[in-house]
Design brief:
single chain; 114 residues; alpha/beta; 4-stranded parallel sheet; 19% strand
Protein backbone atom coordinates (compact mmCIF):
# COMPACT_ATOMS: atom_id res chain seq x y z
CA UNK A 1 0.00 0.00 0.00
CA UNK A 2 1.37 3.39 -0.98
CA UNK A 3 0.54 6.50 0.95
CA UNK A 4 0.18 9.77 -0.87
CA UNK A 5 2.32 12.60 0.33
CA UNK A 6 1.63 16.25 0.00
CA UNK A 7 4.46 18.64 -0.59
CA UNK A 8 4.43 21.95 1.19
CA UNK A 9 6.31 24.80 -0.42
CA UNK A 10 8.53 27.39 1.23
CA UNK A 11 8.41 31.09 0.43
CA UNK A 12 9.78 34.43 1.60
CA UNK A 13 7.52 37.47 2.02
CA UNK A 14 9.76 40.41 1.17
CA UNK A 15 9.83 43.87 -0.32
CA UNK A 16 10.73 44.30 -4.00
CA UNK A 17 14.22 45.57 -3.24
CA UNK A 18 15.38 42.54 -1.27
CA UNK A 19 13.29 40.03 -3.25
CA UNK A 20 15.96 39.85 -5.95
CA UNK A 21 18.54 38.56 -3.49
CA UNK A 22 16.19 35.84 -2.25
CA UNK A 23 15.38 34.83 -5.83
CA UNK A 24 19.07 34.61 -6.68
CA UNK A 25 19.43 32.26 -3.70
CA UNK A 26 16.70 30.07 -5.20
CA UNK A 27 13.85 31.05 -2.87
CA UNK A 28 10.27 31.53 -3.97
CA UNK A 29 9.34 35.12 -3.17
CA UNK A 30 6.07 36.85 -2.47
CA UNK A 31 6.53 40.59 -2.88
CA UNK A 32 4.67 43.13 -0.76
CA UNK A 33 4.89 46.66 0.54
CA UNK A 34 4.40 47.65 4.18
CA UNK A 35 0.86 48.69 3.23
CA UNK A 36 -0.05 45.40 1.52
CA UNK A 37 2.05 42.91 3.51
CA UNK A 38 -0.55 41.74 6.04
CA UNK A 39 -3.25 41.28 3.38
CA UNK A 40 -0.80 39.44 1.11
CA UNK A 41 0.35 37.16 3.95
CA UNK A 42 -3.27 36.39 4.90
CA UNK A 43 -4.06 35.56 1.25
CA UNK A 44 -1.12 33.16 1.08
CA UNK A 45 -2.03 31.52 4.40
CA UNK A 46 -5.60 30.93 3.23
CA UNK A 47 -4.34 29.42 -0.04
CA UNK A 48 -2.83 26.50 1.90
CA UNK A 49 0.05 26.30 -0.57
CA UNK A 50 2.95 26.91 1.81
CA UNK A 51 4.27 24.99 4.79
CA UNK A 52 6.76 27.69 5.78
CA UNK A 53 6.74 31.40 5.09
CA UNK A 54 9.73 33.49 6.11
CA UNK A 55 8.45 37.01 6.77
CA UNK A 56 10.69 40.07 6.55
CA UNK A 57 10.21 41.96 9.83
CA UNK A 58 10.67 45.22 7.96
CA UNK A 59 7.25 44.50 6.45
CA UNK A 60 5.53 42.82 9.40
CA UNK A 61 7.36 43.09 12.74
CA UNK A 62 5.25 40.36 14.39
CA UNK A 63 3.66 38.11 11.74
CA UNK A 64 2.07 35.72 14.26
CA UNK A 65 0.14 38.52 15.96
CA UNK A 66 -0.74 40.22 12.67
CA UNK A 67 -2.31 37.03 11.29
CA UNK A 68 -3.72 35.47 14.48
CA UNK A 69 -7.30 35.58 13.18
CA UNK A 70 -6.46 33.83 9.89
CA UNK A 71 -4.14 31.30 11.55
CA UNK A 72 -6.72 30.25 14.16
CA UNK A 73 -7.19 26.49 13.84
CA UNK A 74 -4.32 26.03 11.36
CA UNK A 75 -1.05 24.24 11.97
CA UNK A 76 0.51 25.44 8.74
CA UNK A 77 2.10 27.49 7.48
CA UNK A 78 4.82 28.11 10.01
CA UNK A 79 5.60 31.82 10.03
CA UNK A 80 9.28 32.52 10.48
CA UNK A 81 10.17 36.17 11.18
CA UNK A 82 13.49 37.07 9.58
CA UNK A 83 15.35 40.30 10.32
CA UNK A 84 15.13 42.95 7.68
CA UNK A 85 18.39 43.81 5.94
CA UNK A 86 17.18 47.40 5.79
CA UNK A 87 17.46 47.59 9.57
CA UNK A 88 21.19 46.88 9.39
CA UNK A 89 21.76 49.77 7.02
CA UNK A 90 19.18 52.20 8.41
CA UNK A 91 20.69 55.67 9.00
CA UNK A 92 19.23 55.49 12.53
CA UNK A 93 21.30 52.34 13.16
CA UNK A 94 24.64 53.82 14.15
CA UNK A 95 26.71 50.65 13.93
CA UNK A 96 25.75 48.01 11.36
CA UNK A 97 28.47 45.67 12.70
CA UNK A 98 26.96 45.84 16.21
CA UNK A 99 23.50 45.20 14.72
CA UNK A 100 24.69 42.08 12.90
CA UNK A 101 26.53 40.93 16.04
CA UNK A 102 23.29 41.26 18.00
CA UNK A 103 21.47 39.13 15.41
CA UNK A 104 24.09 36.39 15.76
CA UNK A 105 24.03 36.60 19.57
CA UNK A 106 20.22 36.48 19.67
CA UNK A 107 20.16 33.53 17.27
CA UNK A 108 22.86 31.27 18.66
CA UNK A 109 23.17 32.60 22.20
CA UNK A 110 26.75 33.86 22.19
CA UNK A 111 29.13 36.21 20.39
CA UNK A 112 31.53 35.20 17.66
CA UNK A 113 34.65 37.32 17.43
CA UNK A 114 36.83 37.20 14.34
Amino acid sequence: MTRGTSTQRVAVLSDAETATGYRLAGAEVIEATPETAVAELERVIISGTYGLIAVDTGLIPDPATATARVMRGRDLPILLPIPSLRDAFNPDTVDAKAYMGKLVRDTIGFDIKL
